[in-house]
Amino acid sequence: MLGNGAAPRSVSRAAALREAAVSEEMGVAARAVEAAAADETADLGPFFGLPSRVQDLLRRLRGIDTLYDWQHACLNLDCVRRRRNLIFSLPTSGGKTLVAEILLLREILRRRRDGLFILPYVSLVQEKVRGLAALGLELDFLVEEYAGSRGRFPPLRRRGRRSLYVATIEKAHSLVEALLEAGRLQELGLLVVDELHMLGDGSRGALIETTLAKVQYVSKSTQIIGMSATLGNIGDLQVFLRAEHFSSDFRPVELKEFVKLGDSVYQVDPTEESGLSFSRQLSFKYSSSMQKADPDHVVALVTEVVPSHSCLVFCPTKKNCENVAQMICSYLKEEFLQHRREEKAELLRQLRAGGQGWVCPVLRRTVPFGLAYHHSGLTSEERRLVEEAYSAGVLCLLACTSTLAAGVNLPARRVILRSPYVASEFLKRTQYKQMVGRAGRAGIDSVGESILILQDRDRDKVKTLLCAPVENCYSQLMHGDGKGLLSLILSLIGLKVSLLRVQRGMVSLHHSATSLLHVTPLPHSSTSLLYLTPPLPHSSSTSLLYLTPPRHSPLCCSCRVLSSVPGSVDVSHSAVLYGDLSRGLDGLLLSSYLHLLYLVTPYELLAQCRPDWMVYLRQVTSLSPAEQKMFAAVGIPESFVARKAAGQTVKKSVPVQPVLRMYLALVLLALLKDPDLVAVSDRFQLSRGFVQTLLSSAAAFCSCVLRFAQELEEFWPFRTLLSELTRRLSYCVKAELIPLMEVAGVLESRARQLYSAGYTSLTHLANADPAHLCRSLTHLYRKQAEQMVASAKMLLSEKAAALQEEVDNLLSPPSDLPPPPPL
């Protein structure tokens, strides 16, 4: 085995072997794809091989009359026509998504195969599901949501209709795994990955990497499209995906980038040595008190564009977002209160209704001025209302964190970066480009502006930030002590892929598996920690490739670890989960939901949990005697919480993880008993956003644990229990609202509005007139009403299709039955 000091000659030889293997694989893949392309049916119509009806629908539903020149060029590429893999990169708001959607429609309608659209966040998935539902209804295909706890594994096999799966990164990984396990991956004709640069993003990047690697290795006819606004080492990514590359610097609205340093504003100019050229001198007249409160002149920069235009102010922390929003409205003129006054009052009423009579004091103060903050501390309902009001122009400014840049589509005339930091970390080039890319609204503004506020201490760093190429994407399979690589290997073992052999603590890959490793970016990553050797002399006939498992995560091929793969349970947590479930079999306490909630509390949120020990003690003492037995069951002494609350030293060491998980389980129990999110967050001294994140994460993890339990026969009692618990956590509301909340993007307050207005079921909503819906519900815009009705119709169509499949399966005798005896 090679160590850190491996000889360059060996590495070069390994690189040569990799290059040869990749070249061979690319040739095989290209021939397979061309053969598949030759079998395609004829064009269905003049719109890039689609009927002109598709173009008419885009015009009617999206307001798209013509495509940009680059979109025409991209859709007419030879590699697109031949269905080869493609990576295309353009600036934010350049129209990448429309190209992906046209290619997905062509796959579904022309080749009659399913499509998968991978997006990074739940909110983006729900937005895309709503946007595609109307197209699906008109063109007779299903749009299925795979996010949070949503999604069926494996998906139903459709006999007559095709499906477009819209999924988060995690759910896409589980979906591909389920299709692989069922031997149905060939049904997937096209896979689209948005924000492809997230390949370099830790554990989530590793999930994208393994998903794409397995698709490439198993299905030679599945086309992969990757798109991003920010890509660095595009050559490595092309080798990984065996893809061609298309790029353009087109933006529908011109972007002008500026930097504010002191009282001077400089325009970003890569031709200058410093990267900047002087633009203008600021001459704002501030009082001494205002200068002290706003030394960076944020108020002056904002008031140059609002309220007639929109503005985003990116802040380094969540608390800073709230402070900046309050500071700005403190110095705005009274005339701001009159701008769209009634609509802002209605927004406050909606926020109050969503909070069951309570509204955030900061929003209560800032919304009348047309301002709000936007970060993860808000609930999903609050974020939705704020986003809708901003999109409609009711709000003219959002003070937000960097997560908004990669989230929902909220462009602005001017984007202000309050600081070149995210928390305490200096901005990366990729993050900066995403933020400033929000500037400029197509069809509304003729120009977009970004202003980065810089301090003297950061002057030397700014040139790299503004003018350097974006960061490279490297393989993340070795992230977290190699959990990604271990997960990939275990997945192959679990799927009974005969490529691996375990000998004396090493995994050996047969020559037929070396190509699998080569379809990951790992061998091409300069930061790779994987040590490769050329074939050993004594094994040249079998051509083995050896790799060392990470030291702190030994390769364990037990059933409990293998079952973590289809359930998307983190490999490092699978042993703990297995132990918890095993102990639960010995003494599962079912007097309440507490024990089950403890089992499905997400491990990932423990690092963010800081218990208030007095609150913890009050919650423990309010439990029933049967519920209090849980503490002994998970190894927490009865006196532990009381001593911590009293500030006393705890002599006996108590594991931290069970203590934190129990605290979060108590939060979830409180929500199930009374789904008043504001009251529960106040009771436990946690932010509303965190409590809601806990609830949605627990619902998603509960579905993962359910799949974990389904893989192991010994855990059969959990299957029914966790199935019901997933439903309760997903829709933590009154039972009558659950059918309405199945519609993508419909949250509790909207569901209550619908129910009160007489839309008490999916059928009622699906048959609603959007115009009447707008009149019946306050603060609902026509486009949103149309998307809501279309989503309800799509859900009904999906349910009907599922029932029809069951009927067809019951009426169709199995193929292995003997023929009936002759009469």
From TrEMBL:
Any one GO molecular-function label of the UniProt entry: DNA binding
A GO cellular component annotation in the UniProt record: nucleus
EC number: 5.6.2.4
Start and end residues of each Helicase C-terminal domain: 297-489
Keywords, comma-separated and alphabetical: ATP-binding, Chromosome, DNA damage, DNA repair, DNA-binding, Helicase, Hydrolase, Isomerase, Nucleotide-binding, Nucleus
Classification via InterPro entries: DEAD/DEAH_box_helicase_dom, Hel308_SKI2-like, Helicase_ATP-bd, Helicase_C-like, HTH_61, P-loop_NTPase, POLQ-like_helical
Domain of life: Eukaryota
SUPFAM superfamilies (UniProt xref): P-loop containing nucleoside triphosphate hydrolases (SSF52540), Sec63 N-terminal domain-like (SSF158702)
Reaction equations catalysed: Couples ATP hydrolysis with the unwinding of duplex DNA by translocating in the 3'-5' direction; ATP + H2O = ADP + phosphate + H(+)
Catalytic class of the enzyme: isomerase
GO aspect biological process, one term: DNA repair
Positions of the Helicase ATP-binding domain: 77-249
Places the protein is found: Chromosome; Nucleus
Sequence similarity: Belongs to the helicase family. SKI2 subfamily.
Function: Single-stranded 3'-5' DNA helicase that plays a key role in homology-driven double-strand break (DSB) repair. Involved in different DSB repair mechanisms that are guided by annealing of extensive stretches of complementary bases at break ends, such as microhomology-mediated end-joining (MMEJ), single-strand annealing (SSA) or synthesis-dependent strand annealing (SDSA). Possesses both DNA unwinding and annealing activities. Forms a complex with RAD51, stimulating HELQ DNA helicase activity and ability to unwing DNA. Efficiently unwinds substrates containing 3' overhangs or a D-loop.
UniProt protein name: Helicase POLQ-like
Classification lineage: Eukaryota, Metazoa, Chordata, Craniata, Vertebrata
